[in-house]
Design goal:
The protein is mostly helical. The protein has helices at 31-59, 63-71, 77-93, 98-116, 125-134. The longest helix is centred in the first third of the chain and has 29 residues, at 31-59. The structure holds zinc ion. Zinc ion is lined by residues 5, 7, 9, 11, 21-22, 24-25.
Length: 140
């Protein structure tokens, strides 16, 4: 039967202790083992912190890229072709990730098809591009 630690720490008692003690209060658990477990827990936390940092770095929009995003204007076919050329160059140079490039290319193609078909373009497409690819545009 599951119970709380009889040490009064509020933790869940372990099966190994016969549901008497939590891992940390159990006198049967070697102190060095507890120390190691604590160390391991600390490492996991550090790893998690590193991961969060990495994600934040990735999410940080590149100012140069954001400035370029602001210049994106898909007014006509020529403008879209120019954009696609610029995009290809940026992907090749590595200043735009493959993921960003694929998304932008897909949206540009959509816009091009809409223009060729004489349909009004999907609403606020340029804004969607900025927000999804660069994480900016919301404040503008
Ligand atoms: Zn306890």
């Amino acid at each position: 039967m599951k119970a709380l630690c009889s040490g009064g720490c509020g933790r869940q008692a372990t099966k190994a202790s016969g549901w008497l003690w939590c891992y940390w209060c159990d006198p049967a658990v070697d102190e060095s083992k507890k120390l190691q477990a604590r160390k391991h827990g600390g490492q996991m936390t550090k790893q998690a912190a590193e991961l969060v940092k990495t994600v934040q770095v990735v999410r940080q929009p590149d100012p140069e890229l954001a400035a370029w995003a602001d210049t994106i204007a898909w007014a006509d076919e020529a403008a879209i072709h120019a954009f696609q050329l610029e995009l290809a160059k940026r992907i090749a140079k590595g200043t735009v990730t493959t993921e960003q490039g694929q998304l932008l290319e897909r949206l540009a193609s959509k816009k091009l098809k809409a223009l060729q078909a004489g349909r009004p373009s999907p609403r606020a497409l340029e804004k969607v591009v900025k927000v999804m690819a660069f994480g900016t545009g919301g404040a503008a």
